[in-house]
Amino acid sequence: IADPVTRDEIFHTDEIVDAIIIGAGFSGLYQLYQLREELGLKAIVLEAGKDVGGTWYWNRYPGARCDSESYAYSYSFDPSLEQEWSWSERYPGAAEIRSYLEHVADRFDLRRNIHFGAKVVGASFDDATNLWTVSTLDGADFRCRFLITAVGCISSANVPHIAGLADFKGEWYHTGHWPHEGVDFSGLRVGLIGTGSTGIQAAPEIAREAAHLTVFQRTANYSIPAHNAPLGKDEIRAIKEDYPAIRKHMRSNSNGHPYQMPPEGALSVSSEERERRYEDAWAKGGLGFRAVFSDLLTDIKANTTASDFIRGKIRSIVKDPETASLLTPTDHPFASKRPPIDTNYFETFNRSNVTLVDVRAAPIQSITATGIRTTNADYELDAIVFATGFDAMTGPLLALNLIGSGGRTLRDDWSTGPSTLLGVQTPGYPNLFTVTGPGSPSVLCNMPVAIEQHTRWITACIAYMADKGYKRIEADVDAAQAWMAHVDAAAKNTLLPMANHSWYLGANIPGKPRVFMPYAGGLSNFASKSDDIARAGYQGFRMS
Length: 544
Ligand code: N01
What we know:
Mean pLDDT: 96
Strand content: 15-25%
Low-confidence stretches: 1-13
Bound molecules: 3-acetylpyridine adenine dinucleotide
Shape: globular
Pfam families: Pyr_redox_3 (PF13738)
Keywords: FAD, Flavoprotein, Monooxygenase, NADP, Oxidoreductase
InterPro entries: FAD-binding_Monooxygenases (IPR050775), FAD/NAD-bd_sf (IPR036188)
Largest sheet: 8 strands, mixed
Distance between the termini: 16 Å
Organism: Acetobacter sacchari
Number of helices: 16
Protein name: NAD(P)/FAD-dependent oxidoreductase
Structural class: alpha/beta
């Protein structure tokens, strides 16, 4: 490749593409659109799945549904797209989100630049040419100037190492890799391990179908009723009319959701008023419960009022007092782990075909040919469902086996925890951009809003480089260290680190460094910091 000095020379070579994007989910699709349509670059997407969808391509477990309101869980970049698409329910099911992303891919003719079935297994940077070589499982190599990972944060399934799994005679599944043809549980005794957002969505659905469901719970979880329902024509019309204001509000707050948070703290109102507001929010349902008061995530006393309210609800729903007590979370404040929302989760334990097993008190010892053995009992099962989560944020990036400048590896560089600047670049990995990387607000937000901010920043950065004739960008070590210190401080300003076993901290994966990975300082704050850095000529990044 010739030494480029103009945008055309940088970006219009035949042999080497300007950018490779890994992943065709929400991030990858929009990143491709921007690079191709706005910058006129030659960009391709490498996608392991056979179609678009990302996390929604793989997550097809019973009850898989998004916890964001459907109208807010969508792209905002094209006003006619948001006018022509109508969501059918308050929360979109996995299949409907897949249809939406397929529609986006068709509408913007994105598929012609996407290689499906192309699983990336390695990528290395060449200092001499400033190019990346990306290798796929089938042995193909692709070369590009910019490598952009759009691999999601919770896409690396975690199947815990439990002795004996290979001996199990029944079928077992991880929710994140669900068979596309579905699973028929009728007449079966099913064991479900895990009570995070996924397990809480799946349990009621499996219980309805299976002969018996045994839920193996290590940590009791708070959950808010979703109150999912079809969206009426009038609601859809009102949303569409109001979209500009809704989008503006979503971008200008800390989490990218459409909720309005009042200025008051939980303790600034009378206990009757507090209770009334919690009851209203419970009746309304959804993640908006976190926004009933302004200080639920920052003041433990305020949070305790919400935690107590939910604990009371669990006790009032679950009829058997012992089961209710086991289901009642006590070891972390509400929303310090990502709070699930549910449809009849706690009610499910009133069914005669559902049993709750406390594997904190008596841990799972092994899986046998016929079921699960805990330290005090054997449970006979025909199928096991692992709703055991993900090696979040760093897992999908480490799986790419990235080799940076001078032959360094990301696995070594992140052995004590990730280091990035804005979540978007890692020192030592020039021309590599990570959408929703560790250090970005991503998972603490309504994802599409965060993704639009992250990808727009990357696009602007690449456009800037093209204008200036730069062919290499790399985050400074000092700037990345300062950013990670800020990420750590932002988390400590909240109650989030109090859930010391959460995946935000990497604590769900044995041996993983304990680093609070997402940026808890808020999306709008993050966006303005990112803009300031860009305006200052990409301060903290070295370009040449
Ligand atoms: O995973 P999790 P998830 N033995 O890590 C348990 C998003 N999401 O798939 O808490 C026994 O939260 C583990 O126990 P503990 C959302 O961001 C979004 O449910 O570690 N149990 C926990 O109960 C969410 O946060 C939607 O003690 C074991 C569970 O497995 C994220 O995905 C829907 C175990 C794992 O919970 C991940 O949720 C669904 C073991 N060895 C998910 N190992 C939307 O709606 C783990 N567990 C957008």
